[in-house]
Design brief:
Layout (H helix, E strand, L loop, with lengths): L3 H27 L4 H34 L6 H6 L26 H14 L9 H9 L3
Length: about 140
């Protein structure tokens, strides 16, 4: 059985390998030395984290839904469903095994209904933006 976090791990490893290669090779190819080299490497590491959060993990979720669950979703829909492919507030994974038993034309609607149900039950946050959720936790009530 293949789980969604295996796709996320693979995306993370590939992004880290690419980021480390870029951090090591680009400054020497550009001939940058000293403080500018450290600044360039720091900016590249920040860029790697942004790429990982904004593109690699949603791409991994899209691949999981497409390959394993055989559900044709767009990249934007995969970003919406990312909360269903990670642990919920009760630290349990959401069961999506029955998704393959539903007719293909109804799978996306089922995922949206399941997402809405989980939000109403308080199992997942209402916002898919992690930074916004984190800032909301810090805000005084």
């Amino acid at each position: 059985m293949v789980y969604s976090h295996i796709f996320n791990l693979l995306a993370t490893v590939l992004c880290l390998i690419g980021g480390v290669l870029a951090v090591c090779l680009v400054p020497s190819l550009l001939g940058v030395q000293g403080v500018f080299c450290w600044l360039l490497q720091g900016l590249m590491l920040v860029g790697m984290v942004v790429v990982l959060c904004r593109f690699a993990w949603p791409a991994a979720n899209w691949c999981y839904l497409l390959v394993v669950r055989r559900t044709l979703v767009t990249f934007t829909q995969a970003r919406h469903f990312s909360v269903l492919l990670s642990m919920g507030k009760n630290l349990q994974w959401f069961p999506l095994k029955e998704l393959t038993e539903i007719p293909r034309a109804e799978r996306v609607a089922y995922l949206y209904a399941f997402l809405e149900h989980c939000r109403k039950e308080g199992l997942v946050p209402h916002s898919t933006n992690r930074l916004r959720r984190w800032l909301m936790c810090l805000a005084p009530e």
